[in-house]
Amino acid sequence: MQSYYVDGVTMQPLLDVNESVMVNKTAYLFHAPERGDVIVFHFPLDTSRNYIKRVIGLPGDTIVMDNTHVSVNGVQLVEPYVKNPYNPQGATFVVPADQYFVMGDNRQYNDDSRSWGAVPRSYIIGKAVMVFWPILHMRFLNTYPDVFKNIKSPRSK
Known about the structure:
The protein is built from two helices and twelve strands, in the order E-E-E-E-E-E-E-E-E-H-E-E-E-H. It is mainly β. Helix content is about 5%, strand content about 40%. It has one domain (about 1-145): Umud Fragment, subunit A. The radius of gyration is 15 Å and the shape is globular.
């Protein structure tokens, strides 16, 4: 396990500034990240910095965005974890092999795959599983599996 200190608003309301999360570095040894997982990873444009975001798209997925909605493989997401649904522009993105499309939950204030592309699997440090500090904020992180349950993998079409 490793800890990650939240220093921005990009994952609100799930995570607040100054909270610390526990990161399971072994979570992806035997299976790949899943849609909805909150991950900590090396920022692709500066690997000396680490970011925390939610996995929206898996390798091969097609992500389509308009100003307020996100669809994955033709399924529009209903995202209860998003503070402000906002995309600066419509776009379509096909996630490359061995990479993941990530977005913050506070879409209005975000620097994520919409601007710098997908995250290579080798850059993923681990899965964020719980807030442990401050102690009064202690909780497990919700991955919202129901949001993603009807999305078919491009391989299974």
